[in-house]
TrEMBL record:
GO molecular function: carbohydrate derivative binding; DNA binding; DNA-binding transcription factor activity
Keywords assigned: DNA-binding, Transcription, Transcription regulation
Region (Disordered): 289-315
The UniProt record lists the keyword ATP-binding: no
Protein name as it appears in the record: MurR/RpiR family transcriptional regulator
Organism superkingdom: Bacteria
Limits of the SIS domain: 137-277
Segments traversing the membrane: none
HTH rpiR-type domain sequence ranges: 11-87
One Pfam family this sequence matches: HTH_6
Coiled coil: none
PANTHER family, sorted: GLUCOKINASE, HTH-TYPE TRANSCRIPTIONAL REGULATOR HEXR-RELATED
Length: 315
């Protein structure tokens, strides 16, 4: 195969690198960007030379290859040469679904693996949580004029989940997934506001920009991310770290979701605890507000089920 043809075919893997860049650590992203801008480097340099060229370590190169679904650097280079010919489906599965799952796994095997990995992620996240920080954040949210929550793509679903929970207990908040509107809202934040940015990688530019704008406006800013050294963590006043397990489910947002929801539940409950009476009253009002839109429970024949009686004989 001619060299030009080898590179052309081999760099079908470039699409995978680009797809995974947002969820890579800063060090792995340097490797990915180097491979994308200088394809021959990955084929001609040793793992040590490639690491030096990218300003990182050989161990990071190995982790980079595994993130893309290859056992090691040699297999990664082989994949670049042959474009995954003859094994493309298997490699695609490893990259797009996860290494810890196999197409032939039984449903019980899949469930067991999910439970094991997610349990470890939850335990790791719990060990990383600074309870004083989260308690202080809950107090700030309760007394704030407004809370902005920023998240793009998969993280917007997480941001919206936090918004939905807090809104039911009367917190004036909004989840922003569209950066233009989010930036405008961030501009009108002040010292009486709180802003939370959510990004698994901490490298989502739009989320970083929105949180940075809120910080410049005077709001208390908090990042929720798996990377404490990320751009999002750097622009925030403080950071809550969520543990992301070894890549087992793609996209990485899905792998990190259980840990993020644990943090969201903790924030929600600690906010709710700030004033039990007020929270209970607001929850009741929220429930009554939508009660007219709930269907009446009916029997199979469509008749209404009567209310339970006390067992007393009517007078």
């Amino acid at each position: 195969m001619a060299r030009a043809e080898t590179l052309e075919n081999g760099f079908r893997a470039a699409a995978r690198i680009r797809a995974n860049l947002p969820q890579m650590s800063a060090a792995m992203a340097k490797i990915g960007e180097l491979v994308l801008t200088d394809p021959p480097a990955a084929l001609e340099l040793s793992i040590t030379e490639l690491a030096e060229r990218a300003g990182t370590s050989a161990a990071t190169v190995t982790r980079f290859c595994r993130l893309l679904g290859y056992p090691g650097f040699a297999q990664f280079r082989l994949g670049l040469v042959d474009g995954g010919a003859g094994d493309d489906a298997q490699e695609t599965w490893k990259v797009d679904i996860g290494r810890q799952f196999a197409p032939e796994d039984s449903p019980s095997d899949v469930l067991r693996t999910l439970l094991s990995v997610q349990s470890r992620a939850l335990e790791a996240t719990a060990s990383l949580i600074d309870l004083e920080l989260v308690t202080s954040l809950a107090q700030s949210i309760w007394s704030s004029r407004h809370l902005d929550i920023y998240g793009v793509g998969g993280s917007w679903a997480v941001a919206n989940e936090l918004h939905s929970r807090l809104y039911r207990i009367g917190i004036d908040c909004h989840a922003w997934g569209e950066p233009h509107s989010g930036l405008v809202s961030a501009e009108f934040q002040d010292e009486h506001c709180v802003a939370i940015g959510i990004s698994t990688s901490g490298r989502t530019a739009e989320t970083v920009d929105m949180l940075a704008r809120a910080a410049a406006s005077g709001a208390r800013t908090v990042a929720i991310t798996s990377d404490r050294d990320s751009a999002l963590a750097r622009v925030a006043e403080s950071c809550i770290t969520t543990a992301s397990p070894d890549v087992y489910l793609q996209p990485t947002d899905l792998a990190a979701r259980p840990s993020q929801l644990l943090v969201l539940d903790l924030i929600y409950l600690l906010v709710a605890q700030q004033d039990f009476t007020a929270t209970a009253t607001r929850l009741t009002r929220s429930r009554l507000a939508v009660s007219g839109h709930r269907r009446v429970t009916s029997s199979p024949r469509g008749a209404r089920i009567p209310r339970a009686t006390t067992g007393r004989t009517p007078a």
